[in-house]
Amino acid sequence: MASLTAQETVYSTTDDGKYVTYRAGGKPGKRLIRQPGEPGWVESFERIPIIDFTNVNHPDIEVRRRLANELAEAAENVGFWYAANTPVDEELVGKTFAALEKFFSLPVEQKSEASWMKTPGARGYESFADVAANEGSGSDATLRESFIMGDDLLDPKQYSGSVPEGMKPQNIWPTAMPEFKEALDDYYSVLMPFARSILHLFCLALGLEETALDGLHQHPMAALRALHYPPQDPSESAAGFLAHADFSSFTLVLQGAKYGSGLEVLNMNGQWVSAPYIPGATFTCNVGDYLQALSSGRFVSTVHRVVNKSGSERYSLPFFFSPDPSAVLKPVVNKMQDSDYEAEYTDEPIGKQFMRRLMFARRFHPTAKRLAELEISDKDWKYEYITGSLP
């Protein structure tokens, strides 16, 4: 069997070709490729289900419960779903993507003023060169640039309560385009309550009270990652984003109408299934590692990648929603009897785990150690999960 992976530098498929390998925060992640007639083989998905979220905040809990059951089916069998008819306004989507286009069209010097290396949380701009330094070049190259913003208790747009002494700003913004912050702030403020509503649906799907996971998501680690992929020749082997599974509770991605697609999802039979753009404010969503752990493997953190062979520019906007940095992940339900899922659980707060994975993703960058020089306290993981040092 031919290799199916966009591999992470030192990882590859096993010799017998029965596993796909992917990036897993410094550990060799792999998924079994099941073949017809082999033990454990099942007919896997060939498309991404579309779910209508009109009733996500319906006053009748039984209506919400029916939606939760539909969501559970997609999360168990695919790990991906489309969220249609969401509370997000199409006009807001248009304004946000217009801001993305304008920012990424700025000269690299102006974008780099807001470099991710200047913040404790590695937020800000990551250039094409940064990505190449982190993830390789040539046949293993990845072609993209990005900008990340996220939770920041010092930002009055997000939070107005008391802040621990010594807290430092997590986000950084380009002075050449002050309206960029306003655009992403507006979008972020709408995504947060929508994400909390989805969290409640997952609780119902697990047979729990709607608010059962609220205690683990009081001050969630959340982030927007604006992504720009250049046009590629169809013959190019480079990926826009290497094969990976998200380390989040779940991820909500907007793919713009005029920007092509390229997102591909790995099914259990080792096939890459396309997840193209769907008109409207429709999100492409997926389960992340944290929710997979909380659900004892019932909900699947599915491997995916981006290969932009549309021949045009591609912009996308993932929103990652994760528990509090102080949270310790333990299953909230029992493992299903027929599940072969096994996870390693630790008492270490996920904020530290998150930072370790984040720093590993940038381990090859020649100036990554710049982060170690930042003076950041780790005394309170509930609020401040960036240590400022390389694990």
Account of the 3D structure:
The longest helix has 27 residues. The chain is an alpha+beta fold. Helix content is 23%, strand content 17%. Helix 1 crosses helix 5 and helix 2 crosses helix 5. The N terminus and C terminus are likely disordered. The radius of gyration is 20 Å and the shape is globular. InterPro entries: DIOX_N (IPR026992), IPNS-like_FE2OG_OXY (IPR044861), IPNS-like_sf (IPR027443), Iron_ascorbate_oxido_reductase (IPR050231), Oxoglu/Fe-dep_dioxygenase_dom (IPR005123).
Report the uncertain regions: 1-15, 364-391
The helix content, as a percent range, equals 10-25%
How confident overall, as mean pLDDT?
78
Shape: globular
Write a brief structural summary.
The protein has 391 residues and is an alpha+beta fold. Helix content is 23%, strand content 17%. It comes from Kwoniella europaea PYCC6329.
